Amino acid sequence: MDLESIRLLASAIAIVGGSLGPAIAIGWLASRAMDAIGRNPEASSKIQTSMILAIAFAEAIAIYALVIALIIKFV
């Protein structure tokens, strides 16, 4: 196995590992937010705002994983 193959494999592992957690977190956050809105529809705007903020933070983790994968691949 040459160095380029190892870089590609490491890059793939980094992006898969780094995007799996945020994907699960976003699904869980949306599910729990829908449950909360179903129980208390009057608070839907507050719940939605908090949900979007939490999803943005989870998505930032996936972006960090993408950056790490690109660094592994090209450096």
Automatic annotation (TrEMBL):
Organism this protein belongs to: Candidatus Portnoybacteria bacterium RIFCSPHIGHO2_12_FULL_38_9
Domain V-ATPase proteolipid subunit C-like, residue spans: 9-72
Domain of life: Bacteria
Pfam families (alphabetical): ATP-synt_C (PF00137)
CDD domains: ATP-synt_Fo_c
PROSITE patterns named in the record: ATPASE_C
Metal-binding is among the record's keywords: no
Role played: F(1)F(0) ATP synthase produces ATP from ADP in the presence of a proton or sodium gradient. F-type ATPases consist of two structural domains, F(1) containing the extramembraneous catalytic core and F(0) containing the membrane proton channel, linked together by a central stalk and a peripheral stalk. During catalysis, ATP synthesis in the catalytic domain of F(1) is coupled via a rotary mechanism of the central stalk subunits to proton translocation. Key component of the F(0) channel; it plays a direct role in translocation across the membrane. A homomeric c-ring of between 10-14 subunits forms the central stalk rotor element with the F(1) delta and epsilon subunits.
Marked site: Reversibly protonated during proton transport: 59
Official protein name in the record: ATP synthase subunit c
Membrane association type: Multi-pass membrane protein
Keyword terms, alphabetized: ATP synthesis, Cell membrane, CF(0), Hydrogen ion transport, Ion transport, Lipid-binding, Membrane, Transmembrane, Transmembrane helix, Transport
Residue ranges of the TM segments: 6-30, 51-72
Keyword Lipid metabolism: no
Subcellular locations according to the entry: Cell membrane
Homology family: Belongs to the ATPase C chain family.
GO annotations of cellular component type: plasma membrane; proton-transporting ATP synthase complex; proton-transporting two-sector ATPase complex, proton-transporting domain
Main location: membrane
GO MF annotation terms: lipid binding; proton-transporting ATP synthase activity, rotational mechanism
Taxonomy of the source species: Bacteria, Candidatus Portnoyibacteriota
